[in-house]
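Notes continue from the previous slide.

Worked example: a multi-chain complex. Inputs as given:
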Amino acid sequence: MKRPALLGRADLALILLALGAAAVWLLWPRADACTAVVEQDGVELARVDLSSLAEEEVLNLGGPYRVRLRAGPGFIEFLSSDCPDQVCVRTGRLTRAGETAVCLPARISVRLEGGAGGGTDAVTG
Amino acid sequence: MPCAKKSPLPKAVFVCGAVLAALVAVLVWLWSSYGYRARQYACTNVAMGAYVQQTVYGGGAEEAAAQAARAVGDLEERISWRIEGSDIQRLNADAGSVWTEVEEETASLLALCLEVAERSGGAFDPTVLPLSALWDFGGENQHVPAPEQIETFLQEIDYRDLRVDTGESSASLKYHGMGVDLGAVGKGAACDAAVAAYEEAGGVEAAILSVGGSVGTYRQKPDGSPWSVAVRDPGSGDDKNAALGVLEMDAGFVSTSGSYEKAFTEGGVTYHHLLDPKTGYPAESGLVSVTVWCESGALSDALSTACFVLGLEDGAALLEEYGAGGVWVDAEGGVTVTGRAVGAFTLTADGYTLEERP
């Protein structure tokens, strides 16, 4: 007995493909991308997709402390600042989602967004 | 008649349908787990000499975050002794003379400080300003004071000479020369102020924020998991992102007092900013950091300071009175977890060992 199938093989393959693509789309950007968000007093100055960087680049933010950031594949850091305490420069490279570095005198902060799981919601200490 | 024969669909199609249904279910689960990120807003401001980092969930997230940032700024204007015309600056200026009218929130914050001061036997003391200004940790004039100077200023420190009337919203310091410094509770109080702002703003599903080293949460995290708060590794030096471990919390506030903050070295000796109000020198309780988890930001901040000065044994007893949790790190790398933090804290850093409470 042979009845016409509700869904042909090709239809099924197409649906599976579409669902698979949807799953990849849902997971992909968050599993891989790590975006550095640069802010001054809550105002976004720059947003850098670190996973798409092929080589290092330097961001000159200017201002009274002439803050410079260096971003590269998977990391970002305060390269230099004329602030007295240098806490921002000594913080070193940020590589994981949720990490932050701040130059308090210049009121500039950098934090990493993205990266599903692994990251924590906040830091105490 | 057996039902199976009635089935209109061939088995293969039925199986395919089941597989598709399962896939859709997986997609829905993925969306509910990760899709909420779309309604999440994060921003970082600077206030109180610290960074204010917020992650707010919900339709009104952006506006609520701005409101919370303003609330933190307003609090600083009220409680910083450095700001001309603030409640605390006026209270200090009036020391030894009249009662000073203050905002309601300032009065209740002062009352909370007095309570922790009493229950900790003065290990936490809000009237520490003469000493903290003398050492000036983190300031341009930080230095080790002469012993005679410390001796002199020690006499001006006594929380029992600070009187607070919450009914009248006023406070007074008994003697001229005394001064209140709320630096030890400011960041925790800022978390309280921000959480109150989320509630008032509306349109906020949930939020978490940190002000310096204090963390506050508002409602449950939308994906149903607990909030995970990294506790900074006290031995990591400048790398503020290195974690000692993670505290998983469904609600509440967390503050940490660590000797790695605002420390300076003079004559080969490192001096940290957590002063013992009884000696006038940095507290030597064998601890390098204490993290306290409880129901109020200001309380967690005051308790972490008190506990750092008291040390593990007396400090843990104090936390028990408040039903608070604690994570204690000693100079030898021993980590002790107490109260409600037991089971919620996971040690992740190398070089530390978990210890049983003595």
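Summary box: Helices of chain A lie at 9-32, 87-90. Strands of chain A lie at 34-40, 43-49, 57-62, 67-72, 75-80, 100-103, 108-114, 122-124.
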